[in-house]
Amino acid sequence: MKIGDIQINEYPLLLAPMEDVTEPSFRFMCKKFGADLMYSEFVASEALIRNVDNTLKKLTVLDYERPVGIQIYGHNIDSMIEATKMVTEAKPDLIDINFGCPVKKIATRGAGAGMLQDIPKMLKMTQEVVKNTHLPVTVKTRLGWDENSKIIVQLAEQLQDCGIKALTIHGRTRNQMYKGQADWTLIGEVKNNQRMKIPIIGNGDIDDPEKAKLMIQKYNIDAIMIGRATYGRPWIFKEIKHFFEYNEIMKPLTLKEKVEIAKLHLSKSLEWKTGNRGIFEMRRHFSEYFKALPNFKEYRNTLVMSLDIQQLFDTLDKIAEIYTEY
Q: How far is residue 204's CA from residue 21's CA, in Å, rounded to a whole number?
């Protein structure tokens, strides 16, 4: 698959951009397990042009991450133009526009999935972002605003005409948020539209290797983007690639292996985030790393409540010692 001049493996696996999740420490883990293309957290254009420190930090990309994209969002076209120029100077491999985030505080201001209620503005914004960078520009969006406005087939053509180099489609409307089941039929319709020439990337509910392979075979999409299923499971990329290559499920990781992965992840998070942020952002992952272990409440409470770094590492070691049969 090619996005502009970026050559990626056939049927690549992409790490979805997620706020407070896809920061460098988590991207490190996902790259380690085979993610082919990764994205930054959401970068708010208004905060970026005001030089807000936490937002500026999101522009950091490291060479081992490549290819990597920075995703921007906003409701003001002029701000998006300035943000595009700043992101270009940070030298990612591509810029992605977020037209898909359904969160109320973003969408109701007309940004993210809110743009699905103002298509002329969405298209104008896309044209201006493309015009103001030499980097490939991609878009991530949804099927439409609600059940009565699933406009993605026509919209995909319009976005392609704006000059984007790839399109990611989440198989839900904005009003669905993350509820219900993702509908991939319209993603397939976009892909099989003979007028579409750019790669079409499918997103939504991919949480196991069999489902990933089925979606590629059934809908003929060019790539798969994985989001929430990566929480505490960065090795999902390795599992899917193993299934693609050998048509068999990869041998499950042992608990000891998961503990070592969690410790590495925590170490990287502490390297990147200042204060207690590195601990806070690990908590959603800790709950997933050790999901379904019996009699785990005491250890879970420590992992999701403690601010003592040594206690966290000691607890992880203790989990490996106690649950030796897993």
A: 17
